[in-house]
Amino acid sequence: MKMYKLPKFEHILTAFTVGLIISSFLPSSIVSVLAQSNSKVKQEDHPKSHEIEIGVAELSSDRIAYKMNNYLIRDLINNNTVDITSKYEDKPTIPGPTIVVNEGDKVKITLVNEMGWGYPSVHTHGAHYKITSDGTLKDLNKVSDQAASPTNPYTYEWDAANGTAGSWPFHDHTIGRNALGKSMDGLETVGLFSSIIINPSSDRIPALVDGIPKNVSTSDIDKDFILFVNDDVIWGSEIDYTKGGKHSNLGVNPTLTTNKDSIVRFNIQSIGNDFHNFTIDGIKWLKPGTNKVINSHVIGPLANHVFTIKADRNGTYYDNSEINLLGGMKGNFSVISLNSTVGDNREQAKI
Ligand SMILES: [Cu+2]
Fold first, then answer.
1. Which residue ranges does the record assign to the Plastocyanin-like domain (predicted)?
2. Contacts 24+ apart (CB under 8 A), 239-248
């Protein structure tokens, strides 16, 4: 039990105690209804619909970015909704807002063009979708233009069907449209990219823990780091599950910070045209799909690399090619040790 997770445990304990007291006064039929609606596990097992509005806005310095406008999670069994918009940055960011779903969930994204010009879209990898949610233009898909004009938003529907678990990029894909004299070629590389993380329904994630390959639960993950390796820079964001799943943009070649012994997942996506030899000095992880321990991996254009580790030491991550190192494609992985007082408490808590 980690010290900073104790408050959660206290809440559960309180809820459990109150539940016991209440249930002892109620007829068993009502208790069973309460048990169903209170069961955290059963709730989480329900498939969800992720109903999202994403805006497209111009940043300064010729950058264009996605921004989270609204995010509602609807339980497809009991129709309950939870609004998680406030967990996201309230401004356009590069990478754009990360979407996290479970295998079996549905996603509905309405894209709103807030630039007053152009025709941006959303095209995803990994998840399934019908041809009308391809996020391309009629020239390519032969069916329809699937982008958001300044006056008409466009809605995309994705299915995180069985077999789609993983971390996938989504990005603008209406390349070639030239509106109001401004070229839309390759808009995804100026900032219109983000990712969808589809957690497996098995809830088992391979991880390297204390040098040993293990399966951990997605609920064991303390932080998700999302890194987009572009041709000359690495863009980053994180989701901090120890702070209720707070999404933070980390900027360019960011320092990645986490507590010692936390479980962190790296979701690395490559965009642009180059190959990158992603390396972290001092840190090892599992080559995906194997028990082989590695500390570097070559990632090609529009490929991804995902691994989960227990954070036990500092490291430096970089693209291990001379030209990209000279360009500064590197950053720090900073592991914070808890102070000795907290350390003592942790030992007591274990006993
Ligand atoms: Cu793509």
1. 94-180
2. 239/98, 239/100, 242/4, 242/5, 244/87, 245/84, 245/87, 245/100, 246/87, 247/68, 247/87, 247/88, 247/89, 247/97, 247/98, 248/89
